[in-house]
Design goal:
single chain, alpha/beta, Rossmann fold, two-stranded parallel ribbon, 10 strands, 30% helix
Length: 227
């Protein structure tokens, strides 16, 4: 598996500034930026979000026949499935084309169940698109259990029956990672200056410290295919 990083450019920084002023963190902004070229098709299950209000829905592309079902631990409703990710899913085998799961697995203690059950309910060749944080603050919802390296993610999904098609390292280096931990105590109008400045400095540092390029992930975005 090749782990790819984030390339910086003027359009990227323009996007980043807009998302920062929307109140999004650096990690969330990186996720949203990388979702722009992903197209969902057919039957889709969103694990962890009970509505389309999550910011990533502004960027994921949807086919005209795309139908998204959302999930919630506590309640069901119109196009919302009540689902406990810690237990066997009350869903038939092989009925979904895509599963999305963003900023969720770190809150699941029995994460292997969530991954293996996702594989079971996906059609053959179905796609799991996920993102998990790494260098981020503790954020209970209602609990916060784990952080996963890229090696752990690949192995967990392989054991469940997936092949990793792509994994993206969401991060740049030590300075931007450090600022990301202090992000919400910084005044909003100063955030773009510190974020862009730290990314540019990290880019310079990593030119001379290439062996450390993958040591400061804010998280990982990955695309897994059911075997």
């Amino acid at each position: 598996m090749e782990l790819t990083g984030q390339k910086i450019s003027y359009p990227f920084f323009t996007f980043l500034v807009k998302e920062i002023f929307r109140g999004k963190s650096l990690a969330r902004s990186l996720l949203n930026y990388n979702l722009k070229n992903i197209v969902l098709k057919g039957e889709v299950l969103d694990l962890g979000s009970k509505s389309n209000k999550a910011s990533y829905n502004r960027f994921l592309q949807k086919d005209v026949e795309c139908n998204i079902t959302f999930t919630d631990w506590h309640e069901s409703g119109d196009n919302i499935l009540k689902l406990n990710l810690e237990e066997k899913f009350s869903i038939e085998d092989s009925i979904y084309d895509f599963i999305t799961c963003f900023n969720t697995l770190e809150h699941i203690y029995n994460f292997k169940n969530a991954v293996s059950e996702s594989c079971r309910i996906l059609k053959s060749g179905g796609i799991f698109i996920g993102q998990t944080p790494f260098l981020v603050n503790y954020h209970a919802d209602p609990n916060d259990y784990f952080r996963y390296t890229h090696q752990a993610i690949e192995k967990i999904f392989a054991e469940a029956g997936f092949v990793c098609e792509r994994m993206i390292y969401l991060g740049f280096g030590p300075l931007s990672a450090s600022f990301a931990m202090k992000y919400h105590v910084c005044p909003k109008f100063l955030r773009p200056i510190f974020v862009i400045g730290s990314i540019l400095l990290d880019n310079i540092i990593m030119k001379y410290k290439k062996s450390q390029r993958l040591r400061y992930p804010l998280g990982y975005l990955y695309i897994m295919k059911k075997r």
